[in-house]
Amino acid sequence: MMSATSSLALTHASSAMQLAKDLDQNKVTPGVLGFIVFAVLGVAVWLLMKSMNKHMKQVSFEEEAESGPETAKAAAGGTAKPATDH
């Protein structure tokens, strides 16, 4: 006589075996070539990020302080007189 636990285990085992039999043997999977392509893409992204970080460190983000209306005219396309200290 089987216990409830062993009966349940055999039921699940038989359904798992049925699923394994239903698996299509001709199914296309990524395989080794898919892994290699994915790994190469990952390495390429890592190298691009490393290069980007190197180039971003060379960029100066400091802005010049605005000196008032003369700067606004120069930005609008007008000519600005140089600021003189009085």
Task: Describe what you observe in this structure.
The protein is mostly helical. Helices cover 63% and strands 0% of the residues. The chain has 3 helices and no strands. The longest helix has 27 residues, at 31-57. The chain starts with a helix and ends in a 10-residue tail after the last helix. The relative contact order is 0.05.
Head-to-tail CA distance between termini: 109 Å
Helix content: 55-70%
The mean pLDDT is: 75
Shape by Cα distribution = elongated
**Total E-strand runs:** 0
Most strands sheet = none
Strand content: under 5%
Radius of gyration: 35 Å
Summed up, the helix count is 3
In terms of structural class, how would the helical and strand content be classed?
mainly alpha
Low-confidence parts lasting 5 or more residues at pLDDT below 50?
Answer: none
The sequence of SSEs as H and E is HHH
List the helices and strands and how they pair.
Elements: H1 4-22, H2 31-57, H3 69-76
Question: What keywords describe this structure?
Answer:
single chain, 86 residues, mainly alpha, 3 helices
